[in-house]
Specification:
The structure is a homotetramer of 208-residue chains. Chain A is 36% helix and 13% strand. Chain A has seven helices and five strands, in the order βαβααβαβαβαα. In chain A, α1 packs across α6. At the C-D interface, α3, α5, α6 and α7 of C face α3, α5, α6 and α7 of D.
Chain lengths: 208, 208, 208, 208
């Protein structure tokens, strides 16, 4: 493909939220990973669409829905409200028809005040994206509010595992030029760089 | 890569169960999709390991764990017991250490007596596989017992969406030669990741 | 307590929806079960609040939030959108502060087009209500659209199990005057009328 | 009823685990809450049944299943393995037939190494117990390993909310004599079901 298009969506009801900032930062890292221009990342701040999302007509939301559906890669970000994604984000996603995100590689991003809600990305947000037909090859990215001040360490740790499957999902070779590429080039075709997949090693001392 | 290795795991407590049959059939279809030899699909029937899975030593299980961890593609199948996967399957997966399935592309397969439990694959089984580091790019494959007698229609319908992301996750080109490629206009939503995803069409008639 | 107050909430974006009708019908049955006046059931149709739910000020929504929080028993109903509750419903619930539904006995009601989404009540909606501090003693009530034309059989079947724990949660004696009271008065203190709790019987033929 | 019977179940594969200790401690507190004798709490350590749980015949497990099904109140405890309950626990619960826990008031207890898995009780374990017909009126009790050394503060905090609905579910008056009843103004949010639930207070400062 030509350079993949990347979009960041924030479901935080406050415009210009830190959730949006985290989504943009993650999207820019992912754009670089996909050899796209980080400056070309598009941002959809659902807070600015709140006034029409639940209205019968919602032209600005329609435009945003189309932009996300047309993206190659979308970071779908939400703060944790009531142990799940926000109603604002869900109201936006509800406007899609069946398989409205088919062909989109999606990354759930959850910002939680407490680490106790870290599973919300996997058990609540990811199934919605999958239902919409998105491909979600990597783990959800979960950030606590304490991590928002300095995102790079958290993004690095997440990308160490997520980079390879995301690149593959975009039709790119998995192994090249991602932030953890310091891992030996020997990293086998399927395995993320950080996981040498030496099977017996995985089995040692299994269950706590 | 060379031809991907494919393994099918059944978490049904009855040896030689229909769950196993469905897992094998799905794995053979996926092997063909990945240009691998369907006859080379390996099968792990956890029913045959039940005697040692919860025991302090479990050499046969260790061998099975290593085989699954070394596979490129694994179908992880379970009947629905108490609205989730079986304890047998979870006892097997519990034996992995952290990221024990890193580098494996996994397909959750859930066989349910009632369609009411169809979400179990997405909300219960998939998060376990993701926690283990597996890449789960496609929707869970959910089969009702009524569908087991004639699997191909259900597999065809599922592959229409699942083939492209699974091929990509394996590092193969998404578009070529998959079983439903001949499917005509009937499968328009199959949009591979790079497709232009005619956005307005996705938005029509959104929410019921 | 005096006669419990009962409220029905519909999270369907269409005003006067069948979801609302089902929520009202369930609430009326529950009012009767609690020796309250079915005609006194209050109804909150979130479709009529959609215009302000995501706005900075939302006085009508505030009034509705207070009515639900003050109820003894609340039926919280939603159609299934994208395999979960609607954004409209979540946007309403997001307006509560921590433990905003403390002291409310809640019944999740999910209306799904396909039985395949029946788990949404238990895995998605219930955890939100629990997070808000509601007590959810009974199973979610799940209705397919096909059941909406004649609700009573589905409500009867659900109440056979749900009546006793709901009555207890309201501080009422579990055994009296509920629709399945034909079950022998001998039904022991804890056991729902339909479940004689003869332990060995529960164990027979356990796993399919 | 006469004094309720209370049982604690541990799904930790290690016999005499800290999970078991936490389950017993919680069960003893709950026995006191229900005016039962804490010394009469029964304990089921599934680690001791591991050898037969997945076997065709499992007489000791059958006895344990019957004891739990006959209890008025059961604490069902598990460590978090792979972001969910253990296979050992699920293998035990799988042996029940439909509604095998009908009439039992159940408390999910999850012990996690990381707070990031705190939702496992609500989204994974609770639905299994509900599917089995148990009544789960209170929030799951989630403990991190760091809290195991001094359980009382965590149990106190949890009981401040959980005591009233649990007492009601057991057919006891909610307000009396529970361990936190002496707690002064510090526990205002404990609002028993019948409390007036000063609604405006719940709404303040809603969404973060």
């Amino acid at each position: 493909m030509s350079s993949p298009s990347v979009v960041a969506v924030s479901g935080n009801p406050r415009a210009g939220s830190r959730t949006l900032g985290a989504a943009r930062a993650a999207a820019e890292r992912l754009a670089a990973l996909a050899s796209a221009d980080p400056a070309a990342v598009e941002v959809v701040d659902l807070a600015t669409l709140a006034g029409e999302l639940l209205a019968p007509a919602h032209p600005a939301a329609d435009a945003a829905l189309a932009r996300v559906a047309a993206a190659d890669l979308a970071v779908i970000a939400t703060p944790v409200y009531k142990a799940s994604y926000t109603g604002l984000l869900k109201a936006f996603l509800d406007l899609y028809g069946a398989d409205g995100l088919a062909g989109v590689v999606a990354v759930p991003l959850v910002v939680s005040g407490s680490p106790a809600h870290a599973l919300a990305g996997e058990v609540h947000l990811r199934p919605v994206l999958v239902e919409l037909g998105a491909v979600v090859p990597a783990r959800s990215l979960t950030l606590t509010e304490a991590q928002l001040a300095d995102l790079d360490p958290a993004l690095d740790a997440w990308l160490a595992r997520a980079a390879a499957p995301l690149r593959r999902a975009l039709g790119l070779a998995a192994g090249s030029a991602h932030p953890t590429a310091a891992a030996p080039a020997a990293a086998p075709a399927v395995a993320p760089a950080a996981a040498p997949a030496a099977a017996p090693a995985h089995l040692a001392g299994a269950a706590r």
